[in-house]
Each structure stands twice: as C-alpha cells, then as structure tokens.
Amino acid sequence: MEAMRYPLMVDPQMQANRWIKQLFKTQGLIVMKLSTQDFMRILSNAIRIGKIVLIEDVEETLDPSLDSLLEKQFYKNESGICSVSYTHLRAHETRHDLVCRLLLEKKKTK
Description:
This protein is an alpha/beta fold. The chain has helices spanning 15-24, 39-48, 67-70; strands at 8-10, 30-33, 52-56, 75-79, 82-89, 92-95, 101-106.
C-alpha cells in the first residue's frame, strides 16, 4: 500500500533521525538540508536512481519548487513498452522511480 503523502517526523530529541540513519545506512541513505549546496541537483539525481532521501530541519513552509514532488503530481510518459513516471523539479524533468523514498524531519521548536 502506498501513502498519499511523504512522512514528516517531528523529532525534538533526534531519536527518529538516528533510527532512520541506522535503518537505511546500508541502502545508501542521502541526508541533506534545504540549505545544502546543489540541493535540487542532488535530490533530482537521488530520485532518478531510486535512493532514500532524508531532508533534515524542514520548516513550516518549503520551497515551492518541491510542490509537485510533495504532492506526488506525476504523469505517465508512454515510450514503447515501458511507461515511466516523471515529476518536475524546477526546470528539470526527472524520472521518479517507484523505489524512491522521501523522508522529512523537523526539530520541534519552543
């Protein structure tokens, strides 16, 4: 069963963060923040190859360029036998593999 949205962890003591990192460390987990240099390029490449991505320290509002990904607005591109899903990240058309997982983490503030 596939969820309608990506999970958001409110994690004041960083326990879930440590658990996710331990759980997926052998599967090539990519950990980054929205302030990471080349964030969109790294995210796009991670989606393209089906990596698990943990975005740390998200705030109440996110970059609008992530909207289509967060809302899972994919479309099917029929090319020959295979149908491929895509999502738009800024100006890049990026293949969205079914094995891609996106996890969002927010530290609870006072």
